[in-house]
Amino acid sequence: IALERSEAGAVAFLARWQNSNETMTVAVGAAVGAAELSPVEFEGALLLEEDDIDTSRVRWYVTDVVTSSNHRRMGVANLLMDEMERYAFLRSETETTSVTLYLHVKSGNDAAMAFYQNPKRGYAKPTRDELMGLNVDKLACNAGTEGQILLCKTLAKDNVVVLNGHYYNDETTAAETATTVLALATGFGKPKAKHAQKKKKAKRKRK
């Protein structure tokens, strides 16, 4: 399935731990987060005929953003989102093209809504312009997210983070992108140590 999605244009992103502190329980290079950016979900969801599709708007769908349970609240999800937005913008943007990312959030998932709608991320309910030519019900059906809340963000040069001077171009393959390493510096926090977790469990038992 992953190969089929890759061939259809979906791109996977991995966040790998790059802190070599010996007190950490996670190995250097271990995956601590993953995400996927895809055009696949828009198949059959664009209302215009292929020849009439508005080429001035490029659409991507954020299918998954997953963080290791021991590495939450450390900036991993933000780094993944930054990387996906940067990839989408630099691969697709021209002077006459707008790039919009769409995603769904489950109703009642206040944490996810707060994350995406935070000013830093800038996702919001689609405007009339961002919905033009899009069958939102078909999009949700394709993504398996019926009944969920649709959010989106139209990217611009002033809201795309460029990290490490790393740029994408038309020759950058999906395989190269899938191996992108997002370095998690000490400033983003530390993973929970096993011994610390054991102490917490012990305290709960005494209560």
TrEMBL record:
Every N-acetyltransferase domain range? 1-156
Show the Gene3D superfamilies listed in the entry: 3.40.630.30
Domain of life per record: Eukaryota
| CDD domains, per the entry | NAT_SF
- Cite a single GO MF annotation: acyltransferase activity, transferring groups other than amino-acyl groups
Q: What is this protein called?
A: N-acetyltransferase domain-containing protein
